[in-house]
Specification:
Number of domains: 1
Order of helices and strands: HEHHEE
Strand order of the largest sheet: 1-3-2
Number of strands: 3
Largest sheet: 3 strands, antiparallel
Strand content: 5-15%
Helix content: 40-55%
Number of helices: 3
């Protein structure tokens, strides 16, 4: 499985408990990677916003942030959730 796909899966797992801010998703994913020794995923963290955007483009998740992409939404109060 590609790093991008693994990160998308972790974003999905983060949202299974309920809607979250981008910051909360980031924290969950980083904690999960470090707790489970998934060190190969660390280098993909810089594209985590694109993984969220990819899930959004596939119609799997949505957000309330009024921004052009997930990286810009990091400082916003937009909530990400599974559709």
């Amino acid at each position: 499985m590609s790093i991008n796909k693994e990160l998308e899966n972790l974003c999905w797992i983060a949202l299974e408990d309920g809607p979250k801010l981008k910051k909360e998703i980031n924290e969950f994913v980083v904690d999960y990677i470090l707790s489970n020794n998934l060190n190969h995923l660390i280098y993909g963290l810089n594209s985590l916003g694109f993984r969220l955007h990819g899930l959004k483009s596939k119609g799997k998740i949505s957000n309330t942030a009024n921004c052009k992409d997930a990286n810009e939404g990091l400082g916003k109060t937009g909530i990400w959730s599974i559709i």
